[in-house]
Amino acid sequence: MNRETLLGYLMNALEDGEMSSVEQELLRQPKLREQLAELQREISPLASVNEMSDPPKYLAEKTCNKIWAAAGKDELYRGEFDTAGFNTGEDTVISMPMFAERNRISDLPSDRSDMLQAILAASPKIESANTEDVEKIVKRLKRNVPQPAVRKPVPHFYRKYDIAAAFAVGILAALLVFPALNGSTVGQKEFSMTQTPEPVAASQVLSEPEQQTAAVLDSPMELVDSGADYVPLTVPTPGRDIILGDIILGQTSDLLLSHSIDGTKNGWQNISFSTPDIANQAKIFRNK
Amino acid sequence: MIRTAAVNLSQWTDEELILEYQSTRQRAAFEELVSRYERELFNYLKHYLGNAETAEDVFQATFLQVHLKCEQYEYGRKFRPWLYRIATNQAIDLRRKTKHFQIVSIDEPCRNEYGSASFADVISVGNVEPVDGSIRNEQAVEVREAVEKLPDTLRQVLYLVYFQGMKYNEAAESLGIPFGTIKSRLNAAVKKLNTLLTND
Predict the structure, then answer these.
(1) Is the CB of A55 less than 8 angstroms away from the CB of B43?
(2) CA within 20 to 30 Å of A199's CA: A113, A144, A153, B190, which one?
(3) Same domain, B90 and B5
(4) Cα of B100 to nearest chain A Cα, Å
(5) Do B56 and A59 touch (CB under 8 A)?
(6) pLDDT digit string (tens) for A192-236?
(7) Burial (CB count <10 Å: 0-12, 13-18, 19+), residue A195
(8) ipTM of the assembly?
(9) Is B46 on the interface with A (CB under 8 A)?
């Protein structure tokens, strides 16, 4: 048995199995015991400096606070804006310069911006407000928070471009779609529709939350290619509802878009919707 | 005050805590780890760096690295050696940056009129009367200085195995060197220390 193993034994650095085998050897070999005693004498001075001292007060707390502060900056720097952070009251991220530079409220989507503006405007008053004031503030906040339309997402299209650009793209889409509706192959890169729409009742394929809506729908449905990022659709007749549902394994599992055509308008209507969430194919229901 | 989670994290293993933090970023899990290692890691760093203030800085830097690199922690690995590896690397970095400056803490005991003691005196520390604190302090200073004179590679192993009570394999993992190297370095460290104290 070598010196290194004995040192390991003295310093409890061996695994349990090794420790017991060393002990058995020590019992058998007196010379080994002498060697061990000598080693013990050699390392004994270390005991004089092996005192554990107390760490500085609140070291753990200070460490964590610094890290959370740094983490807050890092998240903001990476633009990972999360309103949930405001609810915790732990990080004063809103006053950080990084916030002002990279996450201005005006840069947020309009609905979140309005809500935050309202909250910030109201917050100084909340502390001193009585119950009536609070109710007023809450009502005001509610008014400022847009009520989400049921399953009617705003396409990215409208967020990114102004109305004029949207109109221009809409016309272009109409030009592409029109031949497709008439059986032409033009525009099939973006979407396609079946030549003979399937006469499947909408209520049979729509998921439960949409049953009520589906009840007023009728066939036919039309297939839409889910490969395209955006599917433009031109609707020739006003006064119809269009429902877009995703089809998985032959059944519509989710409702992706509900669009009402303004019945007061005449002529062609153009809509465009995002399709990345469509798993397989989608069908359009038109309500006559 | 560090917040406590609804669940009793104090009963979780280190590995469970870091994996929890890795997957959920639950701060309470991280804070539990910091609290758990507050005393132990601080003392390791204080021994290694010879200065409480610097040890505090490195302690904080270590856990910042844990926070930043927690994704690199692999399931099945022991947390303690991983933490010590980060801490040792942080300490080495700091030593490298400040190698032109000798770090001296005003808290450390200093030499006194009794002069330096021989190794024989030091090993007979058990015979010293407990009331004679000055002599005991002097001997501690001697040993501490001798440890400080050890090459970095030997001192690291000595601190991890002797002062931190790590197993050979944990120390090997902490320093990223083979198991056999740890054993030979520890042996060399004790021999060198013996020589330094005898020559003094």
Answers:
(1) yes
(2) A153
(3) yes
(4) 25
(5) yes
(6) 333 333 333 333 333 343 433 333 334 344 555 555 555 555 555
(7) exposed
(8) 0.72
(9) yes
* B175 close to B160: Cβ distance less than 8 angstroms: yes
The answer to whether the Cβ–Cβ distance between A13 and B67 falls below 8 Å is no
Q: CA-to-CA distance for B63 and B86, rounded, in angstroms?
A: 9
Which residue on chain B is closest to A70 by alpha carbon?
Answer: B64
B195 DSSP assignment? H
For residue B197, give the CATH number of its domain: 1.10.10.10
Look at B194 and A42 and tell me if their CB atoms are within 8 Å: yes
Q: Any chain A CB within 8 A of the CB of B125? A: yes
**Residues of A with CB below 8 A from B194's CB?**
42
Instruction: Tell if the CB–CB gap between B171 and A13 is shorter than 8 Å.
Output: yes
Percent of chain B predicted with pLDDT > 90:
34
Q: Which domain holds residue B116?
A: 112-200
How many separate domains does chain B show? 2
Domain formed by A159-287, architecture: Sandwich (2.60)
**CATH number, position B3:** 1.10.1740.10
Q: Are B8 and B37 in contact (CB under 8 A)?
A: no
Q: Which part of chain A is CATH 2.60.40? A: 159-287
A177-186 confidence digits (pLDDT tens): 665 454 443 3
Choose the final residue of a domain: B104, B122, B154: B104
